[in-house]
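Quick start: read one record
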Amino acid sequence: MSAPRHLCKSVVAILIFAMMAGGLLAADKTVKATLIKVDVKKKILFVKTDDGKKEFTANSATKFIGPRGGVSDAGIKDDRLKPGAELTLIVAGNNKTLREVRLPERSGTGG
């Protein structure tokens, strides 16, 4: 009788592991957005997307990348992060954390 009970526990453990792994492996997604504002202190970008207004949080691992592929040293303080800027965001599977912010060209001269 102990064999079926042991098998049942193994199946339950495998199912729990599979559900947890699925949550951890949720795919990043790419979001096109227009910047509304930036809260530098809280590291939050407020944007407008096709799905409405959203907030995404940057962290120390978030990369801010220019249109030619260079990484911004200024990060969330980059001068291209101003209202109306068109951004491409790579959002983590949790739908809150920014993995990458693709910045637009600098406007004006000297860019």
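The longest strand covers residues 29-39.
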